[in-house]
Amino acid sequence: AMKKPLKAPTAMPMPSAISVIITGEAPSSGGRLASDTLISDTVLRVDYQITDYGGGGKDLTPDDWSAYDGLSFWFYGTNAGNTFRIVLSDNKSGPGDTAERFATTFANDFSGWQQIVLPWEVFYRDGWQPGGEPNDGLTLTEMWAYAVIPASGSGTFYIDQVKLYSVNAPSAGG
């Protein structure tokens, strides 16, 4: 039997429950990534059809992220040109959903797996707040959740290796 030539897949041929280890280069700017704290080690598949709100992410216990410099994850790009928002739920003012929201965006303008590295400085206070939330900036000491939210449309996206990272300056000498 003759082998068919390989062609580029149109969608990622990967079931949602598989555990994948992805490795890659640390970003070239600002030292190297170190002290990664893994939040999730399985691929998260999110099927979405945005009419009002939708996305995927994780609720936390809450966690203290203040010792880290940012959030990184691997995203499977489809080069669709759509925008994704990353939303963090910071400290609360009381019971229920009163966590202050911070957000940033990135564009799905590449194909295949790419590491997205987001220092805390790129997050701004989100325009949508739940009501009764604090207004004290991104404290990072009481993180209740993170979410990856497509701006609009429908489809499927995949994220993997969600991590907190610290940037260590290269050591002098040695």
Gist of the model:
The chain is mainly beta and 174 residues long. The chain contains no helices and 10 strands.
Protein model, in words:
By secondary structure, the protein is mainly β. Helix content is 0%, strand content 47%. The chain contains no helices and ten strands. It has strands spanning 32-40, 44-50, 56-63, 70-78, 83-89, 101-107, 111-119, 124-125, 143-150, 153-168. Strands 1, 2, 4, 7 and 10 form a five-stranded antiparallel β-sheet that branches. It has a five-stranded antiparallel β-sheet with strand order 3-9-5-6-8, with no helix packed on it. 21% of the residues are buried.
Summarize the SSE layout with pairings.
Blueprint: E1 32-40, E2 44-50, E3 56-63, E4 70-78, E5 83-89, E6 101-107, E7 111-119, E8 124-125, E9 143-150, E10 153-168
Antiparallel strand pairs: 1-10, 2-10, 3-9, 4-7, 4-10, 5-6, 5-9, 6-8
Largest sheet: 5 strands, antiparallel
Global mean pLDDT: 74
**Stretches with pLDDT under 50, minimum 5 residues:** 3-40
Number of helices: 0
Q: Which band does the percent of strand residues land in? A: over 45%
Question: How many strands appear in the DSSP assignment?
Answer: 10
Separation, N- and C-terminal Cα atoms: 58 Å
Q: How much is the radius of gyration in Å? A: 18 Å
Percentage of residues in helical conformation: under 10%
Features:
disordered N terminus; single chain; globular; 0% helix; mainly beta; 174 residues
